[in-house]
Amino acid sequence: MTKTELKEAKERYFLNSKMIKELTSRTLTKETDDEQQTRIKRLLKPENYNAFFDYYFGAESGLPLADAPCAPFHQESYSKVFKDRFIRQLRMWYRGAAKSIHTNVGNILHLKENNELFFALLIGANEGLAKLLLSDLQVQLESNERLIKDFGVQVSYGDWADGEFQTKDGKFFKALGLNQPFRGLRFGAFRPDFASIDDCEDRDRAKRPEMVRKYGEKITGDLKKAFHKQRGRFIVPNNYIVKGGLIDFIKDKFKDSKHLDISRVDLATKNITRDNCQEVKDWEPSWKERYTKQEVINIIMDDDYYTSQREDFNNPIEEGKLFKTAQIIKRKVHYSEAWDGFIVHWDLSYTSNGDYKAGVLIGVQGVRLTVLEIFCQRCSTNAAMDAHFAWIMKYKAKGYTPLSFYDATAAQQVVYEPVILQTAEDNNCTDIPIPMHQQGDKHNRIEATLLNVFNRKILFWDETLSGKDYEAFMNQVLSFEKGTTANDDAPDTLERAVFYCQRYYGFTAPEKGSGKPLIGKRRRASAGRL
Asked: Positive or negative, the Cα torsion across 295, 299, 305, 306?
């Protein structure tokens, strides 16, 4: 944050403080000491969190922080936070669900007044943004007359502009940027016992696995180990805007933890396509206290389809740089279909930007190609080859023998061959892939081959394909563009598989005198059944 930006932020803070003091003063009501204590006791019960927020910060308080009563999901998520002192909660709430104000103000102060929080970290994408998060908290403690009436003047020393402050009851609050160190944090006898990692997901960073890993390990390693031994809650208020980013990294790291909680809230409870979204009756707003069905439709229709899916429905599909989502055509594959043959291709790359192992199995029926199997993981070559031999055995059991290849230079072949042979022996299967290496510009090759089959609508995908491998594979295909530094193992292996399908199987035989070209070797449809 520059000096000018800091000066402007301080001026906004001053004006905001005056406004909060004035608005909350107007809503104070007379009550006896007993009535006040009874009300405070009721509001501090975890099951009454929504009432707590509405009273001090919501519609009842006169503040513009909320223009509607809290939703059930605000209460449900906080109840879990209060109950589990070591929760790792991913708040994948749509844009506009009040995730930041609840996490960084409402949740923090309810925990604080219940003596469930002594040292809180507010972590932003950078130090400047983290300080602004801290300012939202401090301005309430200093200026909200409802809070002051019930709990007294709060701030003791420090200031959000300096990145930290302490309250009179000994609680400490600190702002940190994601790129600042988390290790060794301490305030007196207290270590951090609460952390909010607010809106730190980044679509550009997700294209750089090494950066995702760097910051992901800071959160799941450095931050987690910095927590107090008795408490260590952390919340990630960030809707799911990109695959393969920090949210996926955190989710994967804690997937086996009993403390992991995925709180997903979409704008509406039913995801309707744009073609029929005018049917208002089909929509159920998740925050009914704030949105009507028609307002939900208006919000969605005001954005393009991909933005709406990403921001409103936690569905980060990409429009595609070169290849478009609309070109991915799925179809139902019937068990009795006849096939001309099958091609398997693997990219086992270990280059600096290609640490995925990607593989694909394509079935050929004349000119029509169908992707039947997909593999896309960061894993060992052994794990990839285990999948390869599982595919081979599956299709051999149906009476087919797929042709299989992998991309390798002579130097890479020396590295891969012993591993492939050993894995073949372990799987008792002799159908090892053949090393083949294509020279020339890879990006030009991928663009030319795949655009051809996509535009001609001759490449299909088995509708049963799903899961992490499919998502990772498709993410790479749709993110591909010439000159990209992102992972391109999936589009690379897909292009090679398509190439070999057309080279070795080609088109169906032309009718006499039709002039239809033959590409590759002629293959008749097998009598076998899949």
From this structure: negative
